[in-house]
Amino acid sequence: MPKQMSRLLIAGSRDQMVPVVAELYRHNLFHIEDYVDSGAEGYEGFKIGTPLSGASEKSADLIKIRVITNAVSISADDVDTKSSCSMDELQTKIERELPPLEREVEELTGRRSKLEAREKELQQKIVELTPFADIPVDLNLYHGYKRFTSIAGYLSREIVLHVPHEMHISKKEGKNFIVIVYPTERRIEVEKTLQDAGFQSIPIPHDSGSARCSMEFYDGEIAALKNEILEINTKLEDLKKNHASFLVACEELLRAEVDQTEAPLRFATTKQTFVAEGWVPTDRVATVTNSLIHAAEGKIFVTVVPTDLEHDSVPVEYNNPDFAKPTQVLMDVYSRPRYTEVDPTLMISIVFPLFFGLILGDVGYGLVLLILAYGLRRFLKGEEGRQLLDVLRNASISSIFFGIIFSEFLGFPIPGWNPVLYSRHLMSEHGGHGPNIPELMVLSIWIGVAHITLGRVLGIYNHAKQDHGHHRTLAVMANFGWLAVMWGILVAIWSTAAVPLMPVLTGLPALATVPPVGFGLNVGHAISLVLILAGITFIARESVLEVIELPTIVSHVLSYARIVAVGLSSVAIAMVVNFMSITMFIEPQLENLSVVGVIIILVGIVVFVVGHALNTALGILGGGLHSIRLHYVEFFTKFYKGGGKKYVPFGMNRRFTEE
Amino acid sequence: MAAELAVAATDLASVQASQLGMKALGAGIAVGLTGIGTGVAEMGIGSAAVGAVAENKDMFGLALLFTVIPETIVIFGLVVALLLLFV
Fold first, then answer.
1. Looking at the partner chain, which of A333, A334, A633 has a beta carbon nearest the beta carbon of B69?
2. Which of A117, A392, A450, A636 is most buried, most CB within 10 Å of its CB?
3. What residues make up the domain containing B31?
4. Could you give the ipTM of this predicted complex?
């Protein structure tokens, strides 16, 4: 279940607002319920508050800081927390160092954008000049005539003009580029001829000298500009190096101050008083209340308002043991649980690595992923990234565990170690023992049946807790009905045929001693028929339309076969890679070494490395996506709704500053 | 008589071999056709998912999830193929 919350109401006189806000911010526990000016009962005459003094200056400062951090592209996640400095120290530092730093960054970025604009301009000019590169004439000579017109463009074929003219043609890539100067009075004739030849006109650049010379000149200028931009970038990089921790600390300090000065915008206020409502974890209510009363020297009223689960939208904070916390990221991807719902994070944190390990049960791949999970920590510094890596770490440990059980190392059997229970090695001559595919399939079906049963039981619990009256009974019965149909089908299968690893009920007494009367059916069939019919009745009583969903019972259970199927495909790829690299390339050459042989062995090693790298990537995708999908689609649809509001306490986790 | 027996034995061997080949063919068809089915289904979902992610990056998780939903089809094909080949 999510953490239990209590609704806290704080009322006090307006002059106590500053210490109260500061105290709330320090605790980082109070999820403010924004006051909406809708004339709610008991709030007549209240208005939304106004920001505390100094709000606009501080926001302006914050914007300045953000401009700088954007310009040098720093984010707090990239900076290690080395030393946090005290607020007063930082305050004086901000007054002293921030303005010159701001000026410098502004100047540098301003110059850089000017240079970049100029560079673009020159590049455009070069583009315009390129077609004229083979025309030897000074471009200046094409402009400034009264009686002559000059045009340039592309032609699809050559032409003959019966007008006095001067023409330059250059042929490139099958296109004719042409520049013509002709007397303006013969314009109509010229244009007609050109049009017939499919003429596409382009403007003649205003430039002096031959096009080729100009282009070379511009190229030189662009190179110079690029150098200058590079210089500015290194300067910015230096600034970033020298001031990164100062800048992120500033940002944090100012953000905290702006948050606090703007908090009253979320309170209800009158001329003399203010009222704030919000949520605090129930076990912290006493701490918060006492320290608020202390901060306001007793001139404040704090009370717990009873929670109304029907109408209040209670913010949801996870309440999980430490090892399950990383899995919360997988929950947030789907949807946060509602306040009254079972939080399945703990179950996922156990079952997800198990599924992952069953799919990618290989000691070698597990080790690679484990190294990856620790190695990527250096690059992923954000909270979510860390959590994902922790999930990957747990999954890879499980993968190593199942690798030992299946006796697999990069697709090879582990020498001297036979698979415990079932083997997944496809080629029996190497593993000694062929693959136990029927057993593995049935095992995965059992996992599916157990998982779905758990989901339905949780569904019964959720409905019993959330719903009321007649609807509650129907919903609980419907969930029970789904379970009954699923187990009914199972009993029918057991009574009909013997399946490995499943109970065999074919030996049960027949329904009638004379076979034609009993249709060859036994007591098991009768039980399953009762279960299925009762189940369908329960489902239909809640909603008749749900009955068309009945086939999903079979498809959802069978969907768990992916645990084996995807796993076997990854084993198969590993074996193919091993066969190609070792049996085909390396082994035959090792017998009599030659120069060519060494090269072929190297090729074999490349095939080995690339193949296994590819299979590792596929393993993460296959193992991760398919296990999480089994949770999202097959498991969650049985009980989980989600859509809870995230608990966002007023305050922050300070990393770079101290109180 | 002996010659007839030998012919029968080779006939049996060739029948068994061709049955094995049929199994392999069936397995290949099962995976191939379901693969095409999955591909067709994921085509539409995938393009819509990329569009949704371009609008809002938070959709990435859900988009990825929706995209892999038709994967079930090819998994069934793979299961059938495995059962054909190994059971």
1. A633
2. A392
3. 26-86
4. 0.79
